[in-house]
Model the fold of this input.
Amino acid sequence: MQVIENKVQLRAALKQARAGGKSVGFVPTMGYLHDGHAALIDRARNENDVAVVSVFVNPTQFGPNEDLAAYPRDAERDLALMRAHGVDLAFFPGVEDLYPPGYTTYVTVEGPMTQTLCGRSRPGHFRGVATIVTKLFHLVAPDRAYFGQKDCQQVAVLQRMVRDLDFDLQIVVCPTVREVDGLAMSSRNVYLSAEQRTQAPRIAQALFEAREMIAKGERRATVLAEYIKKSIATIDSAAIDYVSIADSQTLSDCEMISGEVLIAVAVKIGRTRLIDNIRVEV
Ligand code: PAF
Done:
């Protein structure tokens, strides 16, 4: 595995790696890798000749009162996981390499898609995500890029961006990887206290129970959302940011369940903000 720390080296390494028409699979991450990332890497490894993973805690997607400084980082652990999963190129750029002094160019996906759900409580977040992913796509020029369904809104925004800006690549969406008790894997789970960690799986349980209710015939979004809110409210110090039942493509709210819907939640447990979602088709 080649470990690369700046974009000039990355371009040179990719030029060589791609020789003879080899395909490139790319997994962009913010590091502190877990089994969810490992699943993305395995898929990239299996579907492409060359697997590239970036680790960059992107400052432009964090709001002023968010956890940029505290975001967990462990490069050695990340490198060990990448080696174990057969990554070819590990890209660890510095902030100044991607945002040099005087940097002023941003990518914005307009419209409700970036204003609902997380966009409401994290203004500017998706502008930061779209900007860094655009830059990384230009640098890596992958054939396929891999993202987790756990970040469902990010996936929808990036799919729209790829379509609108004519990126010549395929976005591959991989299922959410869960702990045995159902909690969606996230680098932020490390912030939870032991007590909070025992209660956090109730978020996923509430979503799975809502899916059961739909299977038994419930179609009213308000009834399902109320049920999820009540279940999550039993977690000590939980503050619900949103419970959304929305069209899975446009993310606009639904009144009745029909077609493919996304049931998505964001909850703060203490100071830790967790998101989760399921897709349901009727
Ligand atoms: O999902 C993430 O880890 C980040 O939002 C991403 C896509 C790497 C952009 O910084």
Q: What stands out?
A: The chain has ten helices and nine strands. The radius of gyration is 19 Å.
